[in-house]
């Protein structure tokens, strides 16, 4: 029997299959607190909205939603304009629905291109809102990343946003939203360039707000259904292993609305994070897919971890098992090596989706099981977290580095030989 005020918990326990739940209404015991209804955001038909990188996945969803809420004029900046079929379709559809869309081909990281795009906006319909969604992904480990991959990913977000900031400093805007990512907040090891770029967006938003300028960095988790992650199963799987949950298109648009609306309030938030809800994290982290939640040990998330564990009544995720304790208590060095080899092979099996029986710990090199740079980054990070061993990538993937040799090295580093 649950009171109506506990409806959320009742629904959760129902979906967990814990039998029948009866809801009763007893306001005297637990009054129900209602949130004040909020007025939905409306856009102006007489303003131009300057959308950068918004002919990609998320931008398409955003533009259609803005139109439904009254926006009529868009200036869109991206390098390939309507070359991609999906981009051409979007522009055609929104024109047919009555919007006026100018598509400017240009690179946001080139100031002259930004200026040219802004000059094309008719003076009678000035820019009132900006969404900066440009991005290019080039994943890889920091130490093995070439300069080109680093700058390719940094340019649209860092230089692109600085250009927008400088070009629009004196423009009276209702909002300036930068689409950032949870990868920046967490510091994802296999996406260092992307994480750094997003951290930059968060910092720039903070700077703009401190100067009295509108801005909010919208920190998104992976989005299901639309956008680059939804179109790339590999990225989606890697993010799931990190304990990051996805939000759907409806949540995405609500997040955009929150990020835009906060900028017109007296105390605006310079960033809005849409991917660290303790209740949802608790569900994800208790699943078997999560094998690389590197951020759980990060002191910055201690408060969050505490909320998650308090809500679930369990100990904080990631804090209950230590393989190092296990090898410290092993009966012999050989038993310790075997414990590490098994532990490591379990991890590799989950990570590479290789059958556990296919491993030959004495003869096959770790590299021969097939690791790409993204998984390699994840594995190195996990090795450091679990075994306290900072092993260079070349050594880990060197010929002759079998699972057993690796296990012996872990034991040696931990004083067991
Ligand atoms: N999708 C997700 O799950 C997710 C999760 C977290 C955060 N985000 C953030 O959301 C934003 C949009 O993501 P998305 O999934 O829609 O990505 P997307 O489909 O790859 O779209 C990004 C767009 O940026 C444009 N672009 C790249 N470099 C540019 C430059 N220098 N100047 C102008 N435009 C440029 C690209 O078009 P051209 O190649 O034609 O220039 C592309 O259409 C990104 O900022 C991303 O970090 C997305």
General description of the model:
- GO terms for molecular function: fatty acid synthase activity; phosphopantetheine binding.
- Residues 331-414 form the Carrier domain.
- This is Carrier domain-containing protein.
- InterPro entries: ACP-like_sf (IPR036736), KR_dom (IPR057326), NAD(P)-bd_dom_sf (IPR036291), PKS_KR (IPR013968), PKS_NRPS_Biosynth_Enz (IPR050091), PKS_PP-bd (IPR020806), PP-bd_ACP (IPR009081), Ppantetheine_attach_site (IPR006162).
- One of its GO terms (biological process) is fatty acid biosynthetic process.
- The structure is a single chain.
- Helix 11 packs across helix 12.
- It is built from 17 helices and eleven strands.
- The protein has 417 residues and is α/β, with parallel strands linked by helices.
- Helix 2 (57-68) links the parallel strand 3 (48-52) and strand 4.
- It is 45% helix and 11% strand.
- The chain folds into three domains: 48-276, Rossmann fold; 278-319, no CATH class; 323-413, Non-ribosomal Peptide Synthetase Peptidyl Carrier Protein, Chain A (Orthogonal Bundle).
- The mean pLDDT is 89.
- The longest helix is centred in the middle third of the chain and has 21 residues, at 147-167.
- The chain is globular, with a radius of gyration of 25 Å.
- It has a seven-stranded parallel beta sheet with strand order 5-4-3-6-7-8-11, sandwiched between helices.
- Residues 52-53, 55-59, 77-80, 107-109, 133-136, 155-156, 160, 179, 181, 220, 222-223, 227-229 line the site of NADP nicotinamide-adenine-dinucleotide phosphate.
